[in-house]
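hiii, so i know i said id send this last week but things got crazy w the move. better late than never?? heres the sequnce for the chain we talked about at the cafe, plus the structure i predicted for it. fair warning i was half asleep when i ran it
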Amino acid sequence: MTRIPAPVEPPVAVTIAGSDSGGGAGIQADLKTMEAHGVFGTSVVTSVTAQNTRGVEGAFTLPVEAIEEQCSAVLSDFDVRAVKTGMLAEAPVVRSVAEQVEKLEIPVVVDPVMVATSGDRLLDSDGEAAYEELIEHATLVTPNADEAAVLTGVKPEDDESANSAGEELLELGADAALVKGGHVPGEQVRDVLVSEDGVEIFAHDRIETDATHGSGCTLASAVAAGLAQGDALRESVAQATAFMERAVRYHLNVGKGPGSVHHLVELRNEAARDSTAETVERVVQSFVERDVSRLVPEVGMNVVGATPYAEAVGETAAVEGRITRTMSGVKPNRGVRFGASSHVARFLLSAREFDPDLRFAVNCRFDDDVESALATLSGEVAEFDRSAEPTDVKEREGSTMGWGARRAFESADETPVAIIDRGEVGKEAIVKLLAAETEELQRRTFAVLSALET
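okay and structure toks below
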C-alpha cells in the first residue's frame, strides 16, 4: 500500500562557520544544537580544521568564491529564519559574510571566534579588524572575555567592565551583546546581556571542568535556534544559557583531551521522561506486592526517579500523594507524575551534586530496628544531624535537604547507599535509600525489610 506523506516544516537556520574534525565545535556543534532545538540547520563552511579535544593541528580557509556560492545556494532555496556565524578565519571572509548578511532581514547571531578553548588562535589580526563590518549587522554578538577585549579594548573582569564592553559593541552597531563570563574568574559564571532595553545578567554556579570544547559555538547556535522559532532575544538568551549549564555539567567524555559539551543533552533528557516514569511505576508495584508497610514512615513513602540529566524537581517522577499503609498492606494514593515529590526529590537532586549517577531514591521509616537492619547493606550508611543546621538554612524554604545531603556526603568516604536523618522536634526521623538503578533500589529496600522480618 502506498502511504500518504506527512511532511514537517521546521524553521530553518544557517550556520556560517568552520568545520571541526573533532565534532565538538564549529559546523558540527552548530548543526547538532540546532537540530536538538527543533530547527533545521543548513551550513556554509568557511574553513576546514584538523582539530580534536586537545587542540588545533591545522586549518585551511576556503576561497571566498566557494563560501559565497554556498551562501547563495542556501539562501536561494531555504526560508532561512536566522543566521549564526562562527569561525571566519581571514579578513576577506569576514568582509564577504558581512556583505551577505547585510542583504538579509532576519536575526544574525555573531560569535566572533578568535581563540579556541585550547588557546589556539583562529583568526588573524586583519580579520579581527574586519569584524567591525560584521558586528554592524548583528542582532546579537556573543564574545567571551578575550574576544570582547580584542573587539573593544575593554577587558571584562566583573559585571561593570562586561557591561562597558557590551556598550562598546552596541556603539559598533550591534543590537545587543552577550558578554560571556566563562573566562572571568569567580564561583559563578555571569553572562551579561547588554541591549537598548538595559542590562541583564544570567548567572549560574561554575562547573569544575575543562570540558568546554564547543561551548561558544553551541551557545550561539542555541540562541539562533530560538530566534529562528520566533522567540524574543531575551527569551532565546535565557533558554540558551540554561541549556549550556546542563550541556557543560553533563559533558561528553570523548577524545584524549578534556572532552566536549553535550549538544543533545536537553533532547536526551526529555526523551528519557517516559522510561523514567515507567521504572518508578514498576518499583512502586514491587513495593505493593512485597508489602513494605513496615518501612513506610508516618509522612508516607515516596519513590523518586530522576531523568539522566535532571536539574529540577519537575524532572523527577514520583507518586502523587505518596505511598501509604492500608489494612492489607500499602498502596499508592495516586499515579506517578513528574514534579509530584518535593521533599525526597530535592534530596535526590542535592545528592546528584556529589554523584550524578544517582537517579533513584526512597524514603523509609527510621528507628533502632531499621538502623540495625541498615547494617546488613553492602555500602556506607551516612547521616546528618538537624541540630547542627544553621538558622539561615532553616529559614530558607526547601534548603534543609540540600544542606543535609552535603553534610552526609562530606562525612562519607564513598557514595552512601543510605542517609539517615534522625529528625528533631516536629520532624520525623527518616532514612533515604539511594541508587543509580531501580534494581539496586529494590534490592536495598528489600534487604532492609528482610532484616526487619528476621
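btw The radius of gyration is 26 Å. thought thatd interest u
miss u guys!!
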